[in-house]
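Journal club side-thread
Mid-discussion, someone asked how the predicted structure for our own chain would compare to the paper's figures. Pasting it here so we can look after the session.
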Amino acid sequence: MSALHPIKFEEFKSGQRVQQYQYRSFGPTRINREWYWEDPLINTLLEQASRALAELDAFTLIVPDVDLFIQMHITKEANTSSRIEGTQTQMDEAVLEAEQLAPEKRDDWAEVRNYVQAINEAIVELETLPLSNRLLKRTHEILMQGVRGENKTPGDFRVSQNWIGGSGLKDAAFIPPHQGLVPELMGDLELFWHNEHIHVPELIRIALSHYQFETIHPFLDGNGRIGRLLITLYLVNKGLLRKPSLYLSDFFERNRGSYYDALTRVRESNDVLHWVKFFLQAVIETANNGKQTFESILRLRREMDSLLFAYGKRAENAQTLLKHLYRRPAITANDAAELLGVSHQTASSLLKKLVTDGVLVEVTGYQRNRVFFFDRYLGLFTS
C-alpha cells in the first residue's frame, strides 16, 4: 500500500536534476500513489476514451476468426513503432519473408519481425501471469535478438547511464535517471500497476505509466518500442481489451513532434495535465479508427465469401488460402501449393483466377518466384 500523499495533476512536480560526476541526470517523482485533478476536460476525455475502447473491444467479439485479423494489427504496430525509431520497412515488405526482400532491407525487416514475435509471446504470457517487469525484460530480449542493439544487454535493465538526443552526455537533450535508481523506479512503477489501495482509473494509470517508463528509460536500447507496447499489454492485462487490438504508435508517429513535446513538457514544466489529455485523445482517435478498420474488414470479408461461393470445387481451397492471407496478405505459388496440399500447377491456376477476379495482385512482374498480395486487405492497414 502506498503511504505517500495523493498527487493533484495541477500541483505535480515531475522530479529534479541530480548532479552526477560530469553531468546532471533526471530523478523522477515516484508515481505509485493516489492521483486526482480539477480540470473537468480530463473527465470528459476519460469518458470518451473509455467508451471508444469498449466499442473497439466489442468488435473482437463479433468478428469471426478475429485472431486472423489481430495478426495484421500486430504487424502494423510492429512496423509503425519500429519506424518511429528509424527503420524503413513498409507494410507490404513487413508481410513478406526475408528471402523475398533485397538484402539491404533485411536488417530493418528483422527488427519488425522480432517485434511481432515479442508482442505475440507477451500476449500468451499474460493469459497466465500479470504484467510485470520480468515480462517486459523477456519481451525486450526477443525484440533485440540478432538485430542492432543485440549487444546492449537484451532482457536486462541498464547498468550504465544512457541519454536521449545529442551525441553523448555533454550535449544530450535529456539524461534519464542514474542507473542505480532504475530497479527502485521500475519497482515503484510495477507496484502502481497492481496497487488496489488507490483509486485511479486504468487509462490514467497507463497514461502516467507510459510517461514514467519513457522517463526512466530502463533499457539501453528499445525503450520507445517497449514503452508503447506496454500500453497494449496493460489494457489486455486489466481486461479493458480482450484482444490486443489497440496500438497508439500510429497516432504517435503522425503526431511525432507533439508526442515528444508532451513528454518533455512534463519533465521540464511539470505539465502532466497536457500529457494526459494528449494520451486520452490518442486513445479516442485510435480506437475509433480501429472500429472503422474492423467494419471495413467485415465488409470485405462478406464480399469475398460471396465471390468464392461461385468457385464451385475450388471454393474450399480458395477459402483456406484466404484465411492464410487475412493473417499475412502475401503468398507465392509454392507457398500456396504447400498450404493446400496440391500441385504447383493447381495452386498457380487458383492464384491466377483470384488475380483475374481482382482479389490478388502480382507486383514483382517476375516469371518465377512471383509474390501475390491481397492488396485491398493490406490497404486497410496502410491508409
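Post-session note: Strands lie at 7-8, 15-19, 24-28, 35-36, 330-331, 361-362, 372-373.
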